[in-house]
Design brief:
Length: about 70
Amino acid sequence: MKKILLLNGGKRFAHSDGRLNETLHDLALAHLDRAGYDVKQTFIDGGYDIQEEVEKYLWADDIQDVDPAA
């Protein structure tokens, strides 16, 4: 089973509230789950532990950023 780290790089600001990124992230997560991938995720704007993220990065076979601006 392929291991995927899914990053939600969206930022909440002004009126946007990060909904587009959250929607795309949720769709990607659902698709990968249905396809049988083992997925871990990080919501960057929600804060994160550096050591935990390093471990996720080393665990993953592939890293995906859902930020459409990237």
